[in-house]
């Protein structure tokens, strides 16, 4: 089992990062704030104006530590990585499969819809809401998502039709998302899915968490030798990490959506942790970002039993395990790609 290494997130503008021997050192206002051995790091993510010394960049590239640069709002800007270690035969198999992706797309969507349904059902059980029969929004949504799963499993090899079912399931899921928010005045938190820019606090929180998850999924794809730009569910587009977005789809209901709901419902994130910018876009404040990053790192340590492998693993390793299983399928070692189901 691959070891779960750390990702260092640096959010303080004006911080300086440098190499000192075999350690990464973070300084702020001329004072050393933390020191981390390179062998314990998997990735480095920095927000805004943060200085990186050239020797540090060289050491990270040589050690396989990916550096990701984001702006203050969490939008991707650049990525620095060392030599690509992809296996050319695996990548050729990936490119061939991308021309006829329906079976992989079906598996990805079954995992995504099942996990969306699981989030709804878990929330209902935690708050004593009935799920048998009809009559409540959550019960009806769980029933409709169950039917969407059956239709996805039975649909002939038509990628466009599968993508249409994904859109239908997403509409059902986010249509009842307000019902999962237990904070006062849930309509203040979420008014339907919005992106670029997020128009309410929940969308700002989801977009930030999706950025973090995309980073982990891209790193996982590259770690097993896959090309993160060539996906199956997401169409190819210059600059888009389509495969990373594919891997994220089945994981984001549990790793991102569920965490966002927990942060708001437990009052770990409050209205003051967001700010509205010119144009109406909403984003996290520096304090809010730090709270989310801490919770995100803790969430990745939670251990769950992998339904296909039958082994217990931290949630932070699930993107890597799924990328491994996809690579095994593309090589012909597995008849189908097994999605990850949350239980």
How does this model look, in words?
There is one protein chain. The model has no long low-confidence stretch (mean pLDDT 86). The protein folds into two domains: 6-80, CRISPR-associated endonuclease Cas1, N-terminal domain (Ribosomal Protein L15, Chain: K, domain 2); 88-331, CRISPR-associated endonuclease Cas1, C-terminal domain (Four Helix Bundle (Hemerythrin (Met), subunit A)), CATH 1.20.120.920. Helix content is 46%, strand content 16%. It has a four-stranded mixed beta sheet with strand order 1-5-7-8, with helices on both faces. The radius of gyration is 20 Å and the shape is globular. It has 343 residues and is an alpha/beta fold. The chain has eleven helices and twelve strands. The chain has helices at 54-62, 88-98, 102-126, 137-154, 159-175, 186-189, 201-223, 242-249, 252-265, 286-299, 318-331, and strands spanning 6-10, 16-20, 23-28, 31-37, 41-47, 51-52, 66-70, 76-80, 274-276, 282-284, 303-305, 312-314. It starts with 5 loop residues before the first strand and ends in a 12-residue tail after the last helix.
């Amino acid at each position: 089992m691959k070891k779960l290494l750390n990702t260092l997130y640096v959010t303080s503008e004006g911080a300086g990062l440098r190499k000192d021997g075999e350690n990464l050192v973070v300084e702020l206002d001329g004072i050393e704030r933390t020191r981390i051995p390179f062998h314990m790091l998997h990735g480095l993510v920095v927000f805004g104006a943060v200085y990186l010394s050239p020797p540090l960049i060289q050491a990270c590239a040589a050690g396989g530590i990916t550096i990701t640069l984001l702006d203050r709002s969490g939008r991707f800007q650049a990525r620095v990585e060392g030599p690509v270690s992809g296996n050319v035969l695996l990548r050729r198999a990936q490119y061939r499969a991308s021309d006829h992706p329906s079976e992989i797309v079906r598996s990805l969507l079954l995992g995504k819809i099942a996990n969306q349904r699981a989030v709804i059902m878990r929330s209902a059980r935690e708050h004593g809401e009935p799920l048998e029969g009809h009559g409540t929004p959550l019960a009806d949504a769980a029933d409709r998502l169950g039917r969407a799963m059956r239709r996805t499993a039975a649909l002939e090899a038509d990628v466009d039709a599968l993508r249409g079912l994904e859109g239908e399931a997403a509409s059902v899921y986010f249509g009842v998302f307000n019902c999962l928010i237990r904070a006062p005045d849930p309509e203040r938190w979420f008014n339907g899915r919005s992106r670029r820019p997020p128009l309410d606090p929940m969308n700002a929180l989801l977009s930030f968490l999706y950025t973090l998850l995309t980073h982990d999924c891209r790193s996982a794809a590259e770690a097993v030798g896959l090309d993160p730009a060539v996906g199956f569910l997401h169409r190819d587009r210059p600059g888009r990490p389509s495969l990373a977005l594919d891997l994220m789809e089945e994981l984001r209901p549990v790793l991102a959506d569920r965490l966002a709901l927990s942060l708001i419902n437990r009052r770990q994130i409050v209205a003051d942790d967001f700010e509205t910018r010119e144009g109406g876009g909403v984003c996290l404040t520096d304090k809010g970002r730090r709270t989310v990053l801490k919770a995100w790192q803790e969430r990745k340590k939670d251990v769950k039993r992998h339904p296909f492998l039958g082994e217990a693993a931290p949630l932070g390793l699930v993107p890597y395990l799924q990328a491994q299983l996809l690579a095994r399928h593309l090589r012909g070692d597995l008849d189908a790609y097994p999605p990850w189901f949350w239980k």
